[in-house]
């Protein structure tokens, strides 16, 4: 059985990491049995990040590489209905979500003083002494450094909101009135759910959440649909 190493549930979600939630959602969509191994220890992670898996003795990191491996090894047909153009669009959507929108959300969670207390509570509330006295601060400093290195953290909060909402508008435009991004479920829906659920279903009034609820109800319904279909149990 596939062993999925990821962060424990947080913020009212199966996972508050967009990439962990993406991968577990994909496993459910693909119908592959797996076992969760919850951990906060990145020391075992091959690339120093979660998630990673062990599949029949093979250790793999990075959600996209993992999905590619599992698709080939287990004959997953989730994307077989996509034509070449749709596969190209899927890749572009994935890049938008995971390499831009992701950083916008990360900024507000870790760098914005308005939302840091909730992030601290979600990830470090159960941490004992002496670690609770310095680990949260070091973790926050590290995340803020990453956000700045990615470029997003160099902008103002209003500018980041504007940039992120362009991504949201693009995703909503592609979705249109379809139940899933390309009509039938495909792998990019797992990526979209991983990132969007971490805004829509988290009890934090991030600017993105307020604007999505007001201007993009189709995306809220989309997230609810993904949750209802793949996360009933």
TrEMBL record:
Transmembrane spans: none
**PROSITE patterns assigned to the protein according to its UniProt record, in alphabetical order:** GST_NTER (PS50404)
Alphabetized InterPro entries for the sequence: FAX/IsoI-like, Glutathione-S-Trfase_C_sf, Glutathione_S-Trfase, Glutathione_S-Trfase_N, Metaxin_GST, Mito_Protein_Transport_Metaxin, Thioredoxin-like_fold, Thioredoxin-like_sf
**Stretches assigned to the GST N-terminal domain:** 1-78
Instruction: Check the record and name the PANTHER family matching this protein.
Output: FAILED AXON CONNECTIONS-RELATED (PTHR12289:SF41), METAXIN RELATED (PTHR12289)
List the protein's name.
GST N-terminal domain-containing protein
- Which species expresses this protein natively? Methyloversatilis universalis (strain ATCC BAA-1314 / DSM 25237 / JCM 13912 / CCUG 52030 / FAM5)
């Amino acid at each position: 059985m596939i062993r999925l190493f990821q962060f424990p549930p947080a913020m009212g979600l199966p996972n508050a990491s967009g990439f962990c939630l993406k991968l577990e959602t994909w496993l459910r969509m693909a119908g592959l049995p797996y076992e969760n191994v919850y951990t906060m220890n990145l020391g075992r992670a091959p690339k120093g990040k979660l998630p990673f898996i062990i599949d029949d003795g093979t250790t793999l990191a990075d959600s996209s590489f993992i999905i590619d491996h599992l698709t080939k090894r287990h004959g997953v047909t989730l994307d077989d209905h996509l034509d070449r153009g749709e596969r190209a669009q899927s890749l572009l959507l994935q890049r938008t979500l995971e390499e831009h929108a992701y950083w916008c959300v990360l900024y507000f969670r870790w760098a914005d003083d308005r939302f840091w207390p909730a992030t601290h509570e979600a990830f470090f509330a159960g941490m004992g002494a002496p670690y609770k006295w310095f680990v949260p601060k070091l973790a926050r400093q590290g995340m803020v450094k990453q956000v700045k290195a990615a470029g997003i953290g160099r902008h103002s909060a209003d500018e980041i909101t504007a940039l992120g909402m362009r991504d949201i508008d693009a995703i909503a435009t592609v979705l249109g009135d379809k139940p899933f991004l390309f009509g039938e479920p495909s792998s990019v829906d797992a990526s979209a759910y991983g990132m969007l659920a971490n805004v829509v279903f988290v009890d934090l009034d991030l600017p993105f959440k307020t604007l999505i609820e007001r201007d993009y109800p189709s995306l809220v319904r989309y997230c609810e649909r993904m949750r209802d279909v793949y996360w009933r149990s």
